[in-house]
TrEMBL record:
Keyword Transcription regulation annotated: yes
Organism: Gordonia insulae
Stretches assigned to the HTH tetR-type domain: 17-75
One of the record's GO molecular function terms: transcription cis-regulatory region binding
DNA-binding region: 38-57
Keywords: DNA-binding, Transcription, Transcription regulation
Organism domain of life: Bacteria
DNA-binding keyword on record: yes
Any Pfam family the entry gives: TetR_N
InterPro entries the record matches: Homeodomain-like_sf, HTH-type_TetR-like_transc_reg, HTH_TetR, Tet_transcr_reg_TetR-rel_C_sf
Protein name: HTH tetR-type domain-containing protein
Length: 194
């Protein structure tokens, strides 16, 4: 059996996707080091000309939206890995550590003000598995039943943002912020002693 020949259109589409992926990856790296980098600086760092960058993203806002989509996709993929059986608290602790790692990678976008209501819907969808896991933990007696699961999932997200923000301000090392987030998580979800 012979492989189908690659058409010119397929090659162009592959090049376009490759350029877009390179722009996003390069922007993540550059903006993580220098959040105020210009579109020109992003193009130079990626190794594409400005025209190519602007064909993909007509302005900085569109690029930042694409980067926010990337962080939400990574967060959703992480959330989907939460187990549906077994102890919940250790799984959520692991999730929190991994979420902080993702947050550190995308710290510039976590600190960016978002106004697109569609992003909030995507954030809610990305954390839905966390909410389900928290509910399961409540039914197993691992998590305080007085906590609203949506609020608790939001707390976890705020722990990530808080930890990353402290690292960004050089107020703490990443390891220290991660450790403090774990302590705060444990204090927030453990059932109250009677």
């Amino acid at each position: 059996m012979y492989a189908k020949p690659v058409t010119a259109d397929a090659q162009v589409r592959a090049d376009v996707e490759r350029n877009r992926a390179a722009i996003i990856e390069g922007a993540i790296t550059l903006l993580g080091q220098s959040p105020s980098s210009s579109m020109q600086q992003i193009a130079e760092a990626v190794g594409v000309n400005r025209a190519t960058l602007y064909r993909h993203f007509t302005n900085r806002e569109q690029l930042l939206t694409a980067l926010h989509h990337a962080v939400l996709a990574d967060t959703a993929a992480l959330s989907e890995q939460l187990p549906t059986e077994g102890p919940v608290v250790p799984a959520l602790r692991g999730y929190l550590d991994d979420a902080i790692t993702i947050g550190e990678r995308y710290r510039f976008i976590l600190m960016y003000r978002r106004t697109d209501p569609g992003m909030f819907e995507m954030e809610a969808a990305a954390t839905l598995p966390v909410v389900r896991t928290i509910r399961r933990g409540q039914s197993q007696g691992e998590i305080d039943v007085r906590l609203d699961p949506v609020f608790a999932a939001g707390q976890m997200a705020m722990l990530v943002v808080g930890a990353v923000g402290l690292v960004e301000r050089d107020a703490m090392t990443l390891d220290a912020a991660r450790s403090q987030a774990q302590i705060a998580f444990g204090n927030a979800v453990v059932p109250a002693r009677r």
